[in-house]
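Researcher: I'm preparing a figure for a lab meeting and need a structural model of a single chain. I don't have an experimental structure, so a prediction will have to do for now. The sequence is pasted below. Please return the structure as tokens so I can convert it later.
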Amino acid sequence: MSSPVPQLTWFLARRSGRRGLHSQLLSAGAAAVGALILLVLTAAYFGSDARAHATAWRTPLPDRHGTAVQTLGTTYLGDRPITVVTLAQLPGRSATPAPPGFTGFPKPGQVYVSPALSDLLHRTPANRLADRFPKVSSYGTIGEAGLAAPEELVAVVGKTASDPAVSGTAEPLGIFGQFSGQTERAVISGFDGSSVSLFTSADKPAVSIGVAIVAVPVIVLAAAAGRLGTARREQRLAALRLAGATPRQILAMTGLESAVVGAAGALTGALAYCLLLPALAEIPFGIGTWHTGQLWVGLPWLLGIVACVAGLIAVSAMMTLRQVATSPLGVAQQANPRNTRIIRLVLFAAVLLYIYVTTSSGGASERQQLAMLLLFYGGFWLLGPWVVDRLGRITAHFARRPATLLAARRLSDDPRGAWRTVSGLVLAGFVAGFFTVGNVGIDDYRFPGQIAVPTTSTATARAATAEARTLLDAAGVKATVTAGDGDEAILGGTPGVLVHVSGGTARLDTAVTALSNLVPGQLPYTEEYANAENHTFTERLGELGTAALAVSFLVATASAGLTAAANVLDRRRVYALLRLAGTPLRLLDRARFRETVLPLVVLAGGTTGAGVYAAFKVNEMFDSTISTSGAVTLAVCVTVGALAMFAAIGASRPLLRSVTADAAQTAD
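Model: Understood. Here is the structure written out token by token.
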């Protein structure tokens, strides 16, 4: 015998009328936004990993019985890094397979460049860039498989095994060459490696932090979608419960309806993600934009996220029906006040104590830090409704205006609903406080106008110094050239040639180009080379903060707008009765806004302060101070976020006017 639940669910959904359709559309909209953002976050996580591993072929695993020699070097045009890979087939060995992005192993004299570098070579004078590479009639092109990003600058040069550039003398010299990961040499037999480029190594850790920060508000939004239209659903199902429906049937009907609505919304979000892939690939991060294929999560992950969002909405909806199952008469009579208990405050205090003790002791692992972040979000999610409830009671006691009194009564009557309206911006306040006030940074090396060319010995440095003067004179660059014994900071403890150039970036680039072949296998470098690791870390952190803020406030705005519209539908009978009693529509609208402003000021202020405190603790780890400009940025972020949320809530004003247009019929 088939269950009547699907047929009855479909019948009630069709008969729910325009109001029921509005609630379903809002729930589907929340599911669509949640699924879209979760897919984008997943794409960024997998894409950053794929982008990093696209550079691993440049530092393959060494093999003393290998078939080729590979060296890795890094040169700079201004502040833009150019990765230079030199390959040479060893004589008498088997053929070496082609690197990713190549149709064959580069032959001696061949030069392959990335499309971005090819464009740069044509736009830049040869004495600033092209003369650093062997002269060829035409450059080969490195395919997408060998590049991390379309804007990446990479050159691959084919050499003979006897060339000094790939001989045993081409080992990394000095601390900047040995430990920065920008200079390597190895005998290889293939291009399978696990070491990724310095310029992509920080991408995945940064994205992981961003996903952990932003995913919780997104999941909260998806869970809130299951609670949209709660009042309408409770009234309808309470009547069925009184008519003889079992609790299991009530739960099954709710879960089925919510899952179908959530799946429809999540599939819409997934479709939007697929359509937006080319646009998403144009968003710069780290070394540049993305190859579209890097951001494709794959069909299993896409369907899995759709299923998770639909399941989350269904579970969230069923969790609201406890009172319907146990006391349907109380629900039907609307006699159940939605009080909160002080246990929420106790649990939140316990979470804060645990976080404080853990951070004070220091040495927390990455997993512990992630766990503390999730605990903080969870603790604040528990505390939020309790604070809203108490805030409503206190405000009602001191209220002097009708709009304030109505707002206070709504806060205490339905604290969970009021909390869901502001929760997105409240949790975004933590992100804003952390990333705007934080000032994590590492002191840079300062070598303005200096160029270093490391050598193997002091004697070699002296001989190279005379040749360097000749090369610079021929290039028309006035510079001071000296032989260093390794005590100079930029040489990093190894002998070499030290050059001081005046005249700006263009002159510096010209000097670097002139000195590129001074010492075979040792590219000249500037302060950009020395600071590459520090700059990569701080730049990724800054980009992470910007992205996390943007996504957090987007989620907050969407959550506020959808929840506000759903609350209007849920309270349409209350609003209609107030209109029949003579309450002006303007006063009802003011009450709605004050119902949002009161908890927003208190709770968002609390999370923002927590974010500032977290930033302060991180700054302590790096011996840094609070950013002085961060206060202004923080004020702007919070103001813009609040205005966007108010605009989203204001968008439901026509809906309020619509549900109270025929107050007598609605109240009845």
